[in-house]
Amino acid sequence: xxxxxxxxxxxxxxxxxxxxxxxxxxxxxxxxxxxxxxxxxxxxxxxxxxxxxxxxxxxxxxxxxxxxxxxxxxxxxxxxxxxxxxxxxxxxxxxxxxxxxxxxxxxxxxxxxxxxxxxxxxxxxxxxxxxxxxxxxxxxxxxxxxxxxxxxxxxxxxxxxxxxxxxxxxxxxxxxxxxxxxxxxxxxxxxxxxxxxxxxxxxxxxxxxxxxxxxxxxxxxxxxxxxxxxxxxxxxxx
Length: 238
Prior knowledge:
The chain is of the alpha/beta class.
C-alpha cells in the first residue's frame, strides 16, 4: 500500500521525531511511504482567521501536490480534519469540488488509518509507564476519531492507561484563540493541567502537537513532573 506522509507544520518545526515515528509505524505494516516535499500548511490558521480567498490557493496547491497519492496520512487530527473540509470550502466550484471530495476521502490521521484502513489494533510495541490521553477537540469533534487512539494504546505492553477527568474539555489552545483570548485560554489550560495531575500519570499523550505544546508549557511552568509525548512515540516504542 502506498502512503504519502503529510507532516504538518507543528510536527515539522517542533517535533520532527513524530514524523519519523509515523513513517516507521506505517512501514512496519507493509506501507511504502513517500514524502512530497512541495507540501505546505493545510491552510487552517489563515482560513479560521477569515482569509478564505487566500487560503483557497493553498488548498489547491495541497490537492495538486498529493494528486497522485493513494493515501495521505498525517500525525494530527486537527490538520487532517482541515484537509477533509476542503470539499465544503469548494462546494459549488465546477473545477475543484470533485477534486476536493476525492482528496478528502483519501486523507487519514495515523491512528485512524492503522485501525480503520489497515485493521491494526495491536502495533506490537512495549512502553512502561502510567499514561493518560488527551482527546483533542478537532480530532474528536471534527474528524470523529475517538476510539482508535485508545484501542491502540490499550494494546501496548507495559502501558497503564488512566482516564483523564473531563478529557473532552478543550485545552484552550484553539490556534488563534489562544492569542486573541489569552486570559480565557490561560484559565482553560490551567484546568486541563490540574486534571492531568489528578490522574497521577507519568505521561500525557495526545494526537495533536499544538495541544500538547500548550498543555506541556503550563505543566512545565508549574514544575510538574509529567512528560508530554505524541502518541506515535509510544506506539512506535519497541
